[in-house]
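Lab notebook, bench 4. The sequencing result for the construct came back, and we need a structural model before the next group meeting so we can plan mutations. Quick request posted to the team channel:

Model the 3D structure of this chain.
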Amino acid sequence: MWLRRPSDYRTLLWAALMPAVALAQYLRPEWIAYLFPVGCYLALSAGVIAHNHNHCTTFKSRRLNRWFSLWLSLFYGYPTFAWIPTHNMNHHKYVNRPGDATITWRYRNTHDLFTAVTYFFVSSYWQSEPIKTFIRKAREGNRRLYREILFQYAVWGTAALATASFGVALHGWKRGLWVWACATLFPALFALWTIMLFNYEQHVHADPWSPHNHSRSWSGHLVNFFLFNNGLHAAHHENAGTHWSELREVHDRIKSRIDPRLVEKGLFWYFTKCYLLAPLFPRFGTQQIGTLLPENPASVSLSTADVPLAEAGQTAAIG
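Done. Here's the predicted structure in token form:
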């Protein structure tokens, strides 16, 4: 068996649907109105799967893992190596404490629609520093990793140009670029933005200093089916190397030790409470669990210097 776990046959099915849905929109633009939401969801799934793959590789073969990382980057919208410095080496180390590039309380500890919508831009800016540091260290001390990073950028950029050219060849400049944007560009942007939104929601008002209250989870079976159990976020942080298919068992073991306010059932009701009801009825909003440090996390320098590059070599992103 070439897969490490049989549950990843579903992962491969989702990965196969990604180009199928995109290609259908290129060939039949009149279907865009119906397939665009599906394409956005599948692009988001590419990000979720890339996250899972980066923690626990999908295949037994290093070569297959490498090519699967490249495949996912075509739909997720960015080379998957970036998960290593920003997520594996930074976020999992600091978990919303000062030093975390994705910290939710960098400038203010409020949970409102404006902060949630703009979090992508703040988080993207601060994540750029660990990425640049990681690339520089690879260039100076790990040429194999550096070549792989350049290769991922080359494949990602070439694929973007190729799909745009494909759209133009089929439909002309104006309509072709619009089809490309709907089938490829907008879903990728949606995936990048939503992945960061999920990170915000999973940690805002949680207690970064607690052994179990550091993350917000959604325990519903439907949301976790579509997100490959990534709603079970506390279980993931406490067992980062555990395969996504086994997180339900981990969650069941630790849920009694998590503050009930940090375990939600469904994602839709959670967003309804936070962004439709809470502005009128504050009791529906989230409350800070535990305390935060008084210092301004914006002043804390970010570095991955204390994490050896050999650790990154254990991830799927470099094959």
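The chain has a mean pLDDT of 91.
Will bring this to the meeting.
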